[in-house]
Amino acid sequence: MALSLKHNTTCLTMILLVIAVFCISVAKAQNLAVVKYKGGGDWYGNPTALPNLIKFCNENIKTKMKTKPETVELGSIDIFQFPLIHLTGHGNVFFDDDDAENLRKYLESGGFLHIDDNYGMAPYIKKELKKVFPNKKLMELPKNHPIFSAAFEFPEGLPKIHEHDGKRPQALGMFHDSRLMLLFTYESDLGDGWEDPEVHNDPEEVRQKALKMGANIVKYAFEN
Fold it and tell me: Could you tell me if 63 and 98 are in contact, meaning their C-beta atoms sit under 8 angstroms apart?
């Protein structure tokens, strides 16, 4: 009896160890990817933005992401390798049926999509999101949503980084079973603030706000 109990205890210990190692491996493997979409928009815009955000996150919130983000297409199973995918650009966006179905499965199974409007994307992306979730609407996040304090405090919500039309910045989200699964940052242009300093000549204070808000998004997506 004692031997059997000892054996069971040893087995349980081994199982817990395997689970712990697996969890650590998964945590270390967390990376983000940029979405290559159809429609002709510049999905490749802001080429220095994500590498700079990744560097900032690795140095400040203890992530261990690869320094160069990978590129994924929405219709591919590759998106399921990443807890966070990032979509940006200025112009047209188009999702075909496979893109919409695959993205819906990805988001409902725990993935996170951050859409950052560089400028002019809003009417196109809102139309395509209706293909993914016909019965859901983008909702503005309240200032006290946890994404605004995940790593750095933003008591006023989404910061304004780059001026376009004099409109206020908006953080718009979609939820699945109360979990925020999609964030659309509009009239903020976080990606411009993540770029190399000489690209837009943003003051360092503005760049820091952009990077810190980006780190909040990464931390929230990786942990929820």
Answer: no
Query: For 56, what's the count of Cα atoms within 13 Å in the CB-facing half-sphere?
Result: 25
d(C-alpha 41, C-alpha 53), whole Å = 22
User: Per the structure block, which two tokens stand in for 102?
Assistant: 């695959």
The residue range of the domain holding 22 is 1-29
- Could you tell me which of 1, 75, 78 has the C-alpha nearest to residue 32? 78
Round to whole Å and give the CA distance between 107 and 104: 5
- Asked if residue 174 and residue 196 are part of one domain, the reply reads yes
> Which residue in 145, 152, 202 sits closest to 170, CA to CA?
145
Using CA atoms, how far residue 99 sits from 73, 95, 181, in Å, is: 8, 5, 17
β-strand partners of 113: 85, 182
Task: Report the number of distinct structural domains present in the chain.
Answer: 2
What does pTM read for this prediction? Answer: 0.86
158 and 172 share a domain? yes
Task: Please report how the helices 204-223 and 49-60 are oriented relative to each other, as an axis angle in degrees rounded to 10.
Answer: 70
Identify whether residues 37 and 81 lie together within a single domain.
yes
pLDDT tens per residue, range 96-140:
999 999 999 999 999 999 999 988 899 999 999 999 999 999 999
List % helix, strand, coil for the chain (3-state, nearest 5). Answer: 45, 20, 40
Q: Are residues 152 and 179 in the same domain?
A: yes
Radius of gyration of the chain (CA): 19
